[in-house]
Amino acid sequence: MSKRIILLPGDGIGREIIGSAKTVLDAVAEKYGHTFNFEHHTIGGAAYEEHGTPLADETIEACLQADAILLGAVGGKKWDTLPPQLRPEQGLLKIRKALGLFANIRPIKGFAPLLHASPLKEEVILGSDILIIRELTGGLYFGEPRERREDGNVAVDTLLYHRTEIERIVEQAFESAMLRNKHLTSVDKANVLESSRLWREIVEEKSKAYPEVTVEHMLVDAAAMKLITDPTHFDVMVTENLFGDILSDEASVLTGSIGMLPSASLSKNIGLYEPVHGSAPDIAGKGIANPLGMILSAALMLRYSFELDKEASEIEAAVNKTLESGYHTADLDIKNGKKVGTSEMTDLVVNQIKRK
């Protein structure tokens, strides 16, 4: 198999961990006879420095021609004073819109050696395995108008959803539920918001095509509480953009470290894969960043974009074995473990892949 992969390192530690993902993918390619061709482009603050915009048109065009995209992280204090349209984070919103990335897939699954590091009791989180599916191109983040009025004393944001936007993300959720435990929780605020009432109606309509899937509707405030008190209740969760942004970050505490979490943003034709954590500019260049979220994002790429489930599972198993052997980066906490840096952690994962 030959695939073209765009690498968008971004800012801060993104530039370091993207190299870790490439190293792991090179090892997988060598072992299984694949060819992965990599091409680097800028996004975020790095793109602003080079092009005067957080996402250049030539980068969008390259991504549209690729088979998949790996992204590190964007942002940093040095760009905080830029106008809103030039901030690094606008590069993320722009690429999602340009590529039609409507579904954000975030698996929340704990690694046994790290469960003790979660602020929740181990008996509460043991066995939790959640797939959160977030709509990515609609809602408050994109609705118009969004403006200041009355000399800046009034602010307006618009929560706008079209039926087609809801239908496609709900279909993605049902398909995912069919591949797992056939249990889908749809999260909304239907007791207050008209957009949520439309959302709930569409979920009910789509459920008729998936009679094997048990569907429950849950208000977002109740879902936020239950994620902490009873996370094993959930299997697949689906929700709109803002709610999904908040709930998926809340769920990250289940794992004991946000540095372990991968994500996928999908359209009908292409996927963009990135770790959940930020650019961490305070530790950039020190060689201590955790590359595992980025490496696990590469595994998601193999699974979702290339249908290489065996190779993806091998990466995930290699990460788990490395942690079970007691190795961890500075952000993690393993009892009686050995702390290593970015490059050494990457090499340990590669060695696990090569020895199988």
Spatial strand sequence of the major β-sheet: 2-1-3-12-11-4-5-10-8-9
Overall pLDDT:
94
CATH class of the largest domain: Alpha Beta
Radius of gyration: 20 Å
Number of helices: 12
Oligomer: single chain
Roughly how many Å apart are the termini? 20 Å
How much helicity do the residues have? Answer: 40-55%
How many DSSP-defined strands? 14
Q: How many domains is the backbone divided into?
A: 2
Specify the CATH homologous superfamily of the largest domain: Isopropylmalate Dehydrogenase
Strand content: 15-25%
Largest sheet: 10 strands, mixed
Describe the overall structure.
This protein has helices at 14-32, 45-51, 57-64, 89-99, 122-125, 163-179, 194-207, 220-229, 241-251, 292-304, 309-324, 342-355, and strands at residues 2-10, 35-40, 68-73, 103-109, 129-135, 147-149, 154-156, 183-188, 214-219, 236-239, 262-266, 271-275, 327-328, 338-339. The protein has two domains: 1-118 and 259-356, Isopropylmalate Dehydrogenase (3-Layer(aba) Sandwich); 122-255, Isopropylmalate Dehydrogenase (3-Layer(aba) Sandwich), CATH 3.40.718.10. Strand 1 (2-10), helix 1 (14-32) and strand 2 form a beta-alpha-beta unit. The protein has a ten-stranded mixed sheet with strand order 2-1-3-12-11-4-5-10-8-9, sandwiched between helices. Strands 6-7 form a two-stranded antiparallel sheet. A two-stranded parallel sheet has the order 13-14. The protein is α/β, with parallel strands linked by helices and 356 residues long.
